[in-house]
Design goal:
Distance between the termini of chain A: 18 Å
Radius of gyration of chain A: 17 Å
Structural class of chain B: alpha/beta
Order of helices and strands of chain B: EHEEHEEEHEE
Order of helices and strands of chain A: HEHEEHEHEH
Oligomer: heterodimer
Number of helices of chain A: 5
Largest sheet of chain A: 5 strands, parallel
Strand order of the largest sheet of chain A: 2-1-3-4-5
Shape of chain A: globular
Strand content of chain A: 5-15%
Number of helices of chain B: 3
Chain lengths: 159, 182
Amino acid sequence: MITLNRELPDNVLITTVDEVLGWGRKNSLWWLMFGLACCAIEMMHTAGPRGDLERFGVAPRPTPRQADLIMISGTLTYKMASRVKLIYDQMAEPKYVIAMGSCANCGGLFSKSYSVVKGVDQIIPVDMYVPGCPPRVEALLEGLVKLQQKVQKEKYLRK
Amino acid sequence: MRYDTSLLEKLKSEFPDDVLNMEATGPMPHALIKAASLKRIVGHIRDDKGFNMKYLNCITAVHVTDEHEGKFRSLGFNLIYNFTDADFSRSISLKVYIEDHGDGSINNVVPSIDIYYKSANWFEREIYDLMGIFFHYSKDLSRILLPPDWVGHPLRKDYSEQPSYNDMPTGRSDELQSLRLV
């Protein structure tokens, strides 16, 4: 039986199984419905009928305990930062973060403000940065597709 | 919502000692009053049928400073109260000036008017949060917009940022600094 001790050799059988596992994992990233500001409206549009998110397998989950993917959409303030960290800690491994919009990437328009965290990567690790103010629906989908490619390449069984 | 100068004159005639000055020209005619008589005047304009100011529009604060070579010296604060009457036809504006001499001379000078208008509580909390003016006899004056352990009052002209808050740095290094022309 295949055990997950991650020391399996790199032969064609293990790599194929790894690819199948990667394919399965990338096509079922469940996203957490988490929106902070105006980018959340674009995120809602991405989940809407025209830019359909569910065709990629990303089903919306309201609770972080059941989600794999969190899309930080909107401006993060210092008051909200501890709550976002709490929500991120409640997600189970393996988890992925997309920083959507310029406020989540680097503080954006409010990067000189006193109450804005200059980029969400100061509190949680980010896998994908999607620029834009707000990013177009197609841009967010491109970010999601690139994240899926990143997930596919992960070596799950091998070291 | 017209700012009616006849209301200001009526206020001056009813409170001749407390109304210090009357600005009847400009886009917002207001009456400058003493801080100690604020509660009496506000109670009167709320209950008196001639004024009938049942709606508090807003309370704001302006930091009056003296600038010298880029450094601001704090002189005082102007508190501006805007009221509108019950059928939204006339408005009145009151102004209170408090001097800033240094540590704490602006606190507990202006009374809170939240016994007359419940919405004044949030306006006063915002002014305390962002300007630092502590209102006297307020029922609950705590920070409303910023986190409760924030240090400093940001909208003052002489505010300088803390370097970090709860281990989060408040600045971000600008990687494109060498490319910028300005």
